[in-house]
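During data preparation, a discrete fold description was generated, as reproduced here:
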Amino acid sequence: MSKFGVVVMGPAGAGKTTFCSALIQHLRLNKRSCFYVNLDPAAEDFSYAPDLDIKELISLEDAMEEMGLGPNGGLIYCFEFLLDNLDFLTEAIDPLTDEYLIIIDMPGQIELYTHIPIVPTLIKHLTRGGALNVNLCAAYLLESTFVIDRAKFFAGTLSAMSAMIMLELPHVNVLSKMDLVKDSVSRKELKRFIDPDNSLLDDNPTDSKAALISSQNKSADPSSADSVMAGGSFKRLNRAVAQLIDDFSMVSFLQLDVQNEDSVGAILSYIDDAIQFHEAQEPREPNDEVQYDYQDAEME
């Protein structure tokens, strides 16, 4: 029997746990079952208590104290420990039916998704290639305030593309915290970031600062603090990154405002499509409805 789930990931501060809470609330309002898994060994505050919490197995604080590790090393150790104890996940998830949406809340250290094989190994255990046969998709969150700095936005987009390649999962990429930019960026402008291309760099607001510095001092050292902070030294690099993303055409974004129920519902519909959730549910019997209407008409 298939199971269905979504892995919520992205950089620190992107709003992953907040999105998970909004998703759980939306599912409960629509009388859908969900199973919330927290895999961030440093997380403490939750709007909804996790059904399964990695801290019941190992916490970041314990790993750092007992192994003498820093935050990043401790996090990697926690995941290595989890991989050595996968029964912790298997025993909790295996009894779930296909009516549940399994929501997996991940840490914000993007190196786990981009260049360390820990999370890909975990994904293989969860999906059809492993023991649990879960139809998974990844929801990669990128904070919408990145759109103010085009180079920063493309760096975030590149990390999303890297995660897509590493994890080999259907991806739903999301611009989160839209409420923070709706008053400073027009809707028309925001639409340009849905399918990123390198033309966004042609009118980058941060380039004006670099141009001003250059005009004031044409002989300025490109490695000077002013040039670096203005982004002038990285203009060619930024364009090369943007061209790479444009060439692959792999990344597009959905807009998320967790305070808007329709916005959360729209993201969920894309997740359901990616994991083919509705195709596995029992169809309604339209003949029963037709018969009921016919009998009512006769009584009238």
Observations:
- The CA atoms of residues 214 and 220 lie 7 Å apart.
- DSSP finds 13 helices and seven strands in the chain.
- Strands lie at 3-9, 33-38, 52-53, 100-105, 134-143, 171-176, 253-255.
- Residues 208-218, 284-300 have pLDDT under 50 and may be disordered.
